[in-house]
Structures are given as structure tokens and as C-alpha cells.
Amino acid sequence: MKRCIRYYSTRLNRITKYVEKGLEQYMLNVFKKSSAVFKSHAPFTITGSLNEDMNFLEGHPDAVFILNTRGEILTCNSKLLILLGYKREELKNFLEDVVPYAYREEVKKSFQSALKGESVHFSIEVQQQNGQSLMTEVTHIPYYQKGVICGVYGIVRDITEEQAVKKNYVDLLKRNEEEVWRLATYDPITELPNRSYLMSTAEQWL
Known about the structure:
alpha+beta, 7 helices, 5 strands, 5-stranded antiparallel beta sheet
């Protein structure tokens, strides 16, 4: 029976490798993008006006916003508005407007840590204006003006698609394991327990 399982496992592993290769390349591209973003924009020590900062925000590849010390949005780039489905004048408070209640304590703690000079990275669910939920990675970074922390940068990246890819991959591995067991223990034509399965069951009863 072990030999039979090994045979079918080898066949299904070939299929799995193709999926793994595709997932690996996809995640590598995501990692490269994230690394480039953080390397090119750290540390955030801009000392210009909000208008000057706005030029920086619009050039950022991700959705970005600036909060004051009360958590109110001072400004944001158009990518955040597109991601969340808001108009600029409608989006006032990131926590209250888009963060579900279950994640608010985590966001508050991250915000306070950033005000103390720390950079915090975490994953939360956010809600678009139409009610649809997105899974995102958020980074809070201290926002400096003339060497003094006067707010927090927020960087938001949509990882909903990545989460779906990971889930599909895990589901595929589970189905493959189940298929290996089925092929090794049941006849593919009659779908009845085969000789290996019966012998294995008999050994357990002896």
C-alpha cells in the first residue's frame, strides 16, 4: 500500500510543482515591489509644506495618507481614494471611516507607537465606501516637520488577491493529499475499496 501511495503521490506532485512555481514567482514579484517601496522612502523625514508633501504622495506607488496627532486625515494621494471609493472631501478619519470595529484597537496602538517614533507594519481589513471589504497591509511611520513628529504617515497596500492565491494553493494541496489517498485505496473504475485498503484494514483488526 505504501508503494501505491508513493506512485500516485509522485504523479500529483508534478501538478503541484507547476502551481508552486507560479505562486513562488507571484510572491517574489510582490516582495520585490514591497522592498523597493520601503527602501526608497525610508526614513520619512520630509520637512516641507503639505503641498510639497502632496507631490511626494502622488508619486508613491501605494495608497498613502498623512494623519495629524488626532488621527484626522490631513491629506492623501489619489490611489487611496480610488482604493476606498471615496472623494477627497468625504474621507476625514481613516479609523472611523474605513476600519471595522474589530481592528480599531490594533490601529490605535499602531498609531500611538508611530507618534513615539516607531514604524509599525500590520494587516487589517478595511471597508470601501460601497461596503465591500478588502484585506490590506498597513504601515504607520512617524511624520516629521522640522525634526519634530507632528503626525503619522499611513501606507496601505491591497493584499486581497494575494490572500486568495494563498488560500487556493492551500486548498489545492489538501485536495491533492485526499486524491492520493483515494487513488491508493479505492478502485478508479468501481470506486470500491481496493485490495491494499482491505489488507490495511484487516491488519488493523488483527
